[in-house]
Structure formats: structure tokens, C-alpha cells
Amino acid sequence: MSHTGNDNKAERDFEVAQEDTAQVIADLQAEISSWKDAYVAAMNAVEDLVKRLNEQAEKAQENWLPIPRNVLCLWAKREKERDESVRMDQ
After folding, report:
1. What gap in Å lies between CA 79 and CA 75, rounded to an integer?
2. Measured distance CA(3)–CA(5) in Å, rounded
């Protein structure tokens, strides 16, 4: 094979490699675009979920009735007595 033949083959190989590279880049760009779309959709879903959870939390807070301190003290006293009773039974 002549020197010119080698140059032509090398040139063709280079052109094929460029075309292959261009195709790989195009495929990667399409894949990235697909992943980006999926990411945006997921983030939108998360934002919607957070919004609904915040709305539910606000509604729950509006409907929440505080437990009077004396009721909490009575409950704590009964829990303590129950714990002591369990210890004595052991």
C-alpha cells in the first residue's frame, strides 16, 4: 500500500471516528434531556407534596386544642404511679 493510500485510510478512519463521536454526543444529549425532564417532574411532585403537607399541618394546627397543664400533670403523676406499681410487682 502506498503512502497516499495509508493517508486516505487514516483520513477515512478519522472521519468515521468523528461521525461516531458526533452520534455518541447526540445520544448523550438526548439521554441528559430525558433525565432532566424526569428530574424536573420529580421536583415538581416533591414541591406539590410539600405544599399539601404544609396545608394539612396548618389545618391540623387550627384544629388542635392545647392540653391544659393540670391534665398533663395528672397524666404524668399516673404514669409515675403505674411505673412504680410495675416495679413493686416484679
Report:
1. 6
2. 5
CA dihedral angle for residue 53, residue 57, residue 59, residue 64, rounded to 10 degrees: 160
For the chain, list residues with pLDDT below 50: 1
Assessment of whether the complete model's pTM goes beyond 0.85: no
Q: Tell me the residue range of the domain where 35 lies.
A: 3-89
Torsional class of 82: left (φ above 0), alpha (ψ -120 to 50), beta (otherwise) = alpha
Check residue 83 and give its pLDDT: 87
How far apart, in whole angstroms, are the C-alpha atoms of residue 88 and residue 85? 5
Q: What is the tally of structural domains in the chain?
A: 1
